[in-house]
């Protein structure tokens, strides 16, 4: 899915500052390493449900760069989900970034991590991911990436995953509609499992479990 198009489709939302931030962020990401990002986006446009194909790197592709490029793409598409969440995820109703009752997340965008309204946490997290992935200190080259920088991708994955978990547990209709269009959480979950970027214990959205259950149910009916 072309993230810029996804953002343009949401022009009716009332917050021009948030829309502008998302739009500029998408332009920034599209300007870097165009060939690799285009390869990933072409596979997504061809069939966003063919996750194995999308995650399969070209022969000879540096694994660190491949993970980096996919993480940029996830951030782009998560901006589309963030814009949709804006319609009902308000600071006075979602006062904390929560998933289940056991999970309350602190926002790392402040000098001392603290609680943030969920929509602010989402904005701060995506902004922080953009800053890190654009850092010349950690990612000076898009041809090869040193292992110490690749190690930082796991932290980004854990933080942006919380956007999925909040949407799933508190804005299920929006989550389901966006997931049916993009398969984004499916793809992200398989991505972090494929490259061991997150612990399975932290993957609290039961999206792959549902996939297995639906498959078993289909076989039983057959």
From TrEMBL:
<feature type="binding site">
    <location>
        <position position="94"/>
    </location>
    <ligand>
        <name>Zn(2+)</name>
    </ligand>
</feature>
<dbReference type="InterPro" id="IPR005301">
    <property type="entry name" value="MOB_kinase_act_fam"/>
</dbReference>
<keyword id="KW-0862">Zinc</keyword>
<feature type="binding site">
    <location>
        <position position="166"/>
    </location>
    <ligand>
        <name>Zn(2+)</name>
    </ligand>
</feature>
<dbReference type="Pfam" id="PF03637">
    <property type="entry name" value="Mob1_phocein"/>
</dbReference>
<feature type="binding site">
    <location>
        <position position="89"/>
    </location>
    <ligand>
        <name>Zn(2+)</name>
    </ligand>
</feature>
<protein>
    <submittedName>
        <fullName>HSPE1-MOB4 readthrough</fullName>
    </submittedName>
</protein>
<keyword id="KW-0479">Metal-binding</keyword>
<dbReference type="InterPro" id="IPR036703">
    <property type="entry name" value="MOB_kinase_act_sf"/>
</dbReference>
<feature type="binding site">
    <location>
        <position position="171"/>
    </location>
    <ligand>
        <name>Zn(2+)</name>
    </ligand>
</feature>
